[in-house]
Amino acid sequence: MSAMLLAANDSGPIWLLLLGPAAGGGFYYGWWRFYRNTDKSHAFERETRVQAKPITGQDAKVDEVRGTRRSSIDGANHGNHRERVQRVE
Amino acid sequence: MTTLPPPGGAEAPLPPPDPTIDTRNERLDDGVNRCPKCGATEIQLRPSVGMLVCLFCRHEWAEARLAETVADGDLAELRGTTLGSGATDIDADVSSLITMKCAGCAAEVVVNTAEQMGARCHWCRHVLTVNEQVPNGAVPDAVLPFGITHAAAVEKIREFAGKRRTFADRAFVREFTPENVVGVYMPYMVIDANASADVAGFGEVETRRYTRGTDDNKETVYDADIYEVHRHIDFTADDLTIEASAARALMDASMNTNNIINSILPFDTENAVKWNASYLTGFTSEKRDQNVVETTPELEHQLLSIARAQVESSIGAYDRGVRWERERLQVHGTRWLTMYLPVWLYSYHHVEGGRGMVHYIAVNGRTGEVMGSVPISTPRLLAAAISVGFVLEGVVLAILAAAG
Q1: C-alpha span between A26 and A28 (Å, rounded)
Q2: What is the pLDDT of residues B111-139, one digit of tens each?
Q3: Which stretch of A34-43, A49-58, B209-218 has the lowest confidence by average pLDDT?
């Protein structure tokens, strides 16, 4: 095994060695969720009859960011509709 | 931190002319549901057709749909809080025990509404059913009859569990008896709402993407414009359905599997009919114990979630996403009805690590949608996962050895 590790260091990306444990963990989690369905709930956002008037709003440029390594905005939550943010009266 | 503009539409909600919708089925107030054809009281639901059937003359009929007897109106005009007469607050002083006078022989028959909604007169054998809306949460505004038969539910549960056999707990597999599925009428608040919502936050638009560094230290970096974003939406939601039983509304996947019952929503609540306890004959039911005030936080959460889902279509230009930071909800009007909705429920009590949990497999009694939680045999699943990990690791080592 140690010879293999050395070989990996010399000739290939060592992260490949993590594939085995990752696959085992993914297999366990995937099947666990398929059996237990703990993530399931009524998708009321999509499955409710909603009638909405045209959406209104404003967009104002306030700043710029240069040379960030983030591929998306910090704290993006536009897709997580059920995550509540500060409630204003 | 973003700010929200002052609330729009400063109109004060006008109270509805009559804040209560009378949903009583007055025809049945004497507690006797007679067959319109022969007068017999032996009546029950025939799920395959969703009709009541007289067990003497086989005559079939149905109560009127609630939607036909209660004016829906334009939801955008909804103001204040309107309640169905079956959705009024539960009076803690009202007992679950109801004494009914038999219309056949005048004997007094006691019905425990915590457990059943009807009883047979022990003198003349008339079937008496609880149809009067007493304020103990037992009689809702409407009931949606079962449309899926017991046999169909058994088949769906068998199919669902059959796909989850390999890693299932061995005792669960041994004791699996889908024929034991029980038809249960669950209590729900069904709510129409007219609301407005505002959300504010920041969004980013990518202006440039480039690579920095050389050779092994290359990295992709981004330039972006940052915008303050505000959105406003006026909307109505029709028939939001929320659990009206505290035990069922508590959804914590580490403690229970109530999310399973929640996930088989929605129901075709527009087809719910006026209350008639005969729809419950042969089924069990759970009494409502939640009032409007206890259900309101969940309603507001759902309305805000719907608003956030609706405005998503308007922020597509922000290709680096949006971070919402503040939100406001103005509820202009709501209409609340209580309903019994039909669920076929298979339950299995499983103890793991000294902690017991009831696992449900639930079938929507109208649409047939099925969802469930099957207890897992941890040793089996763990052994399989380790095997998969070992096999893949072997392949990786072989590749690395060949490359070296």
Answers
A1: 5
A2: 777 777 777 777 777 777 777 666 677 78
A3: B209-218
Strands (E), B244-400: 273-274, 284-285, 322-352, 355-364, 370-372
Which residues, in sequence order, are CB contacts of B143 under 8 Å at separation 6+?
Answer: B185, B272, B273, B275, B276, B279, B280, B339, B340
> DSSP assignment, residue B264?
T
For B223, which of A37, A48, A66 is closest by C-beta distance?
A: A66
Q: Which residues of A touch B321 (CB under 8 A)?
A: 72-73, 76, 78-79
Are B350 and B356 spatial neighbours (Cβ–Cβ below 8 Å)? yes
DSSP string of B108-175? Answer: EEEEETTT-SEEE-TTT--EEE--S--TTTTS-SEE----S-HHHHHHHHHHHHHTT-TTB-HHHHHH
Pairing of strands B182-212, B284-285: parallel
Contact B292, B336 (CB under 8 A): yes
Residues facing residue B20 across a β-bridge: B83
This complex has an ipTM of 0.85
Distance from CA of A63 to the nearest CA of B (A): 5
Beta strands A86-87 and B322-352, pairing class: parallel
Domain boundaries, chain B: 20-200+228-373
Taking the alpha carbons at both ends of chain B, their separation in whole angstroms is 55
CB distance B44 to B281 below 8 Å: yes
Q: pTM of the prediction?
A: 0.87
- Partners of residue A13 in chain B, C-beta under 8 Å: none
pLDDT in tens, B276-311: 888 988 888 888 899 999 999 999 999 999 999 999
Q: Report the SS3 class of residue B383.
A: helix
Contacts of B174 (CB under 8 A, 6+ apart): none
CB contact under 8 A, B329 and A69: no
Encoded tokens for B114: 């915590």
Q: How many CB atoms lie within 10 A of CB B327?
A: 20
